[in-house]
Amino acid sequence: MVCRMNGSNRRARGVCKARAILFSACSAISAIALSSSVSWAQQTDAAAVERGRTLLVDQCGFCHGANARGGSGGPDLTRSVIVQTDEAGKQIGEFLTAGRPDKGMPKFDLSAVQVSDLAAFLHEAIHLNAARGLYKILDILVGDPKAGEAYFNGPGRCRACHSPAGDLRGVGAKYEPATLQGRLLLPRGRERAPGSPPVPLYKDPTAVKVSVTPSSGATVTGALVRLTDFEVTLYEAEGDRQRTWLRNGDVPKVVVADPLQAHLDQLTQWTDADMHNMTAYLASLK
């Protein structure tokens, strides 16, 4: 860091010194954080983490969920102050021994090894929350591809718009299962190459379409940019321009059509089984 100042200006000298100290402190903190991250990765006992995961599912999953991130009756344990400030299972063990009867949490009689394993799993979960680049989704393909195919051709009515031999050909080889499931449920928007500029939704191939018919003049159709009680704006790909009309009641006439309406309607009808079966089926289309 370079700090330029007049040697006679004591105030500037003091500011520069303070900045140098702050810069040094921030560098030290960054080094400690990096060291802690590397240290955690080196010290993690994969076997202990897995045992802790199994223990949590058996003993705590009914309230806190199978991944410790909250369930029907308990909070997200990775956000717990006790867990976050725990030292090698000490605070967690003390808490489990006492329980919280007033909050509906019973006491747990766990061995020192079990508490250590549970702490290892919870600390690993917190670490993965902070280092999202390391987080891996491992349990996407849990459905039945045959059941997914039956749903595709039957109650899901997917074949009305899609074809395994047409637009979906090879889709299982093109996308990872997690991406497939995301596109199945929320298909609007496309992934962009890292560093590429964002593309507005009205330029997306699946953009909502709108037709505007003025009281005098021909109907104009394009991608919907904005629609309020006072105006409507659309985008015309030909000419790469936007056009806006002021609205007064039903004038001009505005008709909106969403090419993904079937997907939106399906959001309220998906069951977990249907969603997982469909994901497995799409992943099988290599």
Short summary of the structure?
The chain is built from eleven helices and five strands. The protein is an alpha+beta fold and 286 residues long. The protein has a five-stranded antiparallel β-sheet, with no helix packed on it.
Would you mind describing this structure in some detail?
- By secondary structure, the protein is an alpha+beta fold.
- Among the domains are: 89 residues, Cytochrome Bc1 Complex, Chain D, domain 2; 50 residues, no CATH class; 58 residues, SH3 type barrels, CATH 2.30.30.
- Helix content is 43%, strand content 10%.
- The protein contains 11 helices and 5 strands.
- Strands 4-3-2-1-5 form a 5-stranded antiparallel sheet, with no helix packed on it.
Short key terms for the protein model shown above:
alpha+beta, five-stranded antiparallel sheet, single chain, elongated, 286 residues, SH3 type barrels, 43% helix, disordered N terminus, 5 strands, Cytochrome Bc1 Complex, Chain D, domain 2
Structure annotation, total helices: 11
Can you count the beta strands? 5
CATH-defined topology of the domain at 46-134: Cytochrome Bc1 Complex, Chain D, domain 2
Give the overall pLDDT as a whole number. Answer: 80
Beta-sheet strand percentage? 5-15%
How are the elements arranged and paired?
Layout: H1 10-43, H2 46-59, H3 61-64, H4 81-84, H5 90-98, H6 112-130, H7 145-153, H8 171-174, H9 177-185, E1 209-213, E2 220-227, E3 231-236, E4 241-246, E5 253-257, H10 261-266, H11 272-283
Antiparallel strand pairs: 1-2, 1-5, 2-3, 3-4
Helix pairs in contact: 2-6, 7-11, 9-11
